[in-house]
Amino acid sequence: MENLSELHAADINRLEAHHQTLLDLCLQLEEAAEDVQTPGSPQDYIKLADAIPRLLDETHELEETVLFPDFHRQSGSYFAGVVIERLKAEHRCDRLSAEELSRTLRAVANGQCKLAPDTVAYMVRGFLESLRRHILS
Q1: Which residues form the Hemerythrin-like domain (predicted)?
Q2: pLDDT value of residue 101
């Protein structure tokens, strides 16, 4: 890894704040998944659709530019590189899922979603599970 930056307390605070914001978003998405049978406010779905990719990208950027390089440098282990590559692969998958979920929520908000409500709810819950698992690791 190149350009190894050092992790500071402020970086950890920022990362914790981003993770908390993502967990708060997860709670909002859980509510949306419960309400998908009787769609709530279109503005709420649009707000969620806008927030998902933006928050995810901001958090991934912080992890990849600050946390991962410091972890790699501090560990002094080959396995750190393997773990980091796995996490980056998760980032790529999460990003694709976030984009798809964002498009789906927009379609729900606009009354144009062709998916069954149960399918949308399942999609939301799958995204939540993946996101929470990533935050915990």
Answers
A1: 12-136
A2: 97
DSSP label at residue 115 = S
Q: CB of 84 within 8 A of CB of 137?
A: no
Question: How many Å apart are CA 26 and CA 6, to the nearest integer?
Answer: 30
In a domain, 3, yes or no: no
Q: Tell me: the pLDDT tens digits for 11-20?
A: 899 999 999 9
For residue 71, tell me if it sits in a domain. Answer: yes
pLDDT at 91 over 60: yes
Range of the domain at 125: 9-27+53-136
| CA 63 to the chain's CA centroid | 12
- Reported as half-sphere exposure (CB side, CA atoms, 13 A), residue 12 has a value of 6
CB 117 within 8 A of CB 136: no
Query: What is the Cα–Cα distance from 137 to 132, expressed in whole angstroms?
Result: 9
Total domains in the fold of the chain: 1
Residue of higher predicted confidence among 76 and 113: 113
